[in-house]
Amino acid sequence: MKSYYCTGLTILALSVLSVPAVLASAPPSADSGTQLASLYPINGVDGTHGGQNEIRFMAFDADLSLYSGQTGSDAAQEAQAEEQPEGPASPWTFGGWLTLNGSQAAFHNWAQGGVNNLTGVSSARFTAEYTRDRYVFNHSTNLKYGQSRLDGNEFRKTDDEIRLRNQIRRMMDDERFSLIAQVNFNSQFDIGRDKDNVNTISRFMAPAYIVETVGFAYNPDPSFQMDMGISMRQTVVTDTDLSTRYGLAEGETFRNEGGISIGVKTEREIMTNVVYNGQLETFTNLMEQLNSSTVRFTNELIGKVNSYLTVNVEVAFLYDDDVSTELQVKQVLSVGFSYRFL
C-alpha cells in the first residue's frame, strides 16, 4: 500500500514538473493571461502563491494544448500569417468598352413616303495606365466602323477611324506639370468613296498620320490635360493614286514635317449620367504660314440610360488645307448597346 502511495506521488510530481516546459514553448496572450490570472493566481503575476489553484490551472492548460494537437507556437504562427497584409497593388489600370449602335426603317405603301434604310456602327475603346514613382505611361485605342444601306443599294461606309495614343510622363516636383514624350497614329480600316460613290478617296494607310512629340504637359486635375511640344509628323499614303489628294507630290508615299503641336483633352460629368469628352489637336509646320495649321476638334456627349443602353452625340471639326481649304464637319447621333469588359 505504501509503495502504491509513493508511486502515485512520484507520477504527480513528474507531471507538475513537466508542465512549465510545455508552457514555455507557447507565449501567452496578454489578454487571456490577465483574465485567467484573476481567476487562478500564479506566482509572478500578482506576487502571491496560488497553491492548489496554481497546479490545477497549469495542468488544465497543458491538457488543453495536448488535446487540440497544436502547440502555442503553431497558433501564434497561424495568427501572424492571417495578419500579414496583402501584396502591393498593381501599377497597371485598364479600361475597355464596346458599343453597338444601329437603326432600321422599312416602308411599304406608306402614303407619306420614306426610304428603307439600315445602319450599324460599332466602336471599341481601350485604355491602359502604368504608374511608378514619378513616371506615368498612358495608352488609348479608339476604333470605329459603320455602314449604311439605303433603299436596297449597296452598303456604304458611314464611320471609320483608327486612333492610337501613347504617352509617357515624368512628373515634376509640382505634379501638375510634367515632361512628356508621345506617339500618335491615325488612319482608317476600309475604302472610302466620294458622295457619288464612284471614286476612291481613302483606304487603309492612305492616308495615315504619325506624330511624335517631346514637350511638357499641365494636369491640374485628372479630368483635364494640356500638352505642348516640338513634333515630327509623317504622312503615309500607300496608294499613289491618292498622293496629291493628301498633300504629297505625285507618286510619293511619304512626307515628313517638323513643327509644333498643342493638345487639350478633357473628360468630365456635366450632369447626372451625362459625360462630355472633348479633344483639341493642332499641328503647325514651321516652314509654312500659321494659317496653314492642321486643327482637329472633337466633341462627344455620352448619356447613360442604364447599365447597357447609351445615347451618343458626336460633332467633329477638321481643318487641313493639304486636303481642303474648307472646314470639314462630321456629326453622328446614335443610340445603342454599351458594355464594359475591363
What is the topology?
Blueprint: H1 2-24, H2 30-39, H3 52-68, H4 72-83, E1 92-105, E2 117-132, E3 135-150, E4 156-171, E5 177-187, E6 192-193, E7 200-202, E8 208-221, E9 224-236, E10 254-271, E11 274-285, E12 294-304, E13 309-320, E14 324-340
Antiparallel strand pairs: 1-2, 1-14, 2-3, 3-4, 4-5, 5-8, 6-7, 8-9, 9-10, 10-11, 11-12, 12-13, 13-14
Helix pairs in contact: 1-3
Task: Report on this structure.
Helices cover 18% and strands 51% of the residues. It is an alpha+beta fold and 342 residues long. The protein has two domains: 2-83, no CATH class; 92-340, Outer membrane phospholipase (ompla), Chain C. The protein has a twelve-stranded antiparallel beta barrel with strand order 1-2-3-4-5-8-9-10-11-12-13-14. The radius of gyration is 37 Å and the shape is globular. The N and C termini lie far apart (83 Å).
